[in-house]
Model the fold of this input.
Amino acid sequence: MASISYEQPFWCRGVLVAGVDEAGRGSLAGPVVAAAVVLRPDNCSLCRQLRDSKELTRRKREELFEEIIGSAVAWSVGVASVEHIAQQNILGATMHAMQHAVEQLRCSIAHVFVDGPHHPFLVQPTTAIVGGDRRSASIAAASIIAKVTRDRFMEELARQYPQYGFERHKGYPTAEHFAALDHWGPTPEHRTLFLTKWRARSGQAQLL
Done:
C-alpha cells in the first residue's frame, strides 16, 4: 500500500498536491501517457487501496480508475505521440506528457510529486521520487490513471492492427510482438529507433 506520508504535511496546512506518473515508456509502439492526480485529503478509504498499478490485477485497476476519476479533486492526462518521441527522445517526450498533464489540472496545487529520478519543468515546486508509485498515494493514483488510459488506447489500436496482438502485450517487447513484426513489419505506431535497439540488444542480425 502506498503511503500518504509525502502528502500529509501539505494537507495539514490546508493545501493540495498532485502526483504524476507515466505509462508506456518502455513500449515499442504507441504513445507515452502521463497522468496527474490531486487526491482528496479526506478520502482515506481510497488512499488505503492505492498501490503501483503494476501490482494490481486488471480488474482492480479498472475499479480504482473509476473511483479515482469519480472522487479526486482533479485529474488529467498528457500524451506524447510516437512522432513526438522520435523528435524529442523518450525522456523528453515523457517530461512533455507529464508537464501537459499537470498544466491541465483545474485546481491550485502547492507541490507536485513525480515518479522516477527526473521531473518536468513546472511552475510548482516538484519532488522526484524513485519508486514513487509504491511510496506516494498520489503517484500511485496517477500510475493507475496512466496505465488504464494507455491500455485502452492500445486496445483500440489492436482493432486497427489485429495481427499484432496489441490488446495482449500493449506494445511491449514480447515473443509474440517480435513474431508479428518479423511477419508483418512495423506499423506507423511503432517506435523505429526502439525496434532497432531491441533487435541489436537481443543479438538478432536483421534490424527492422
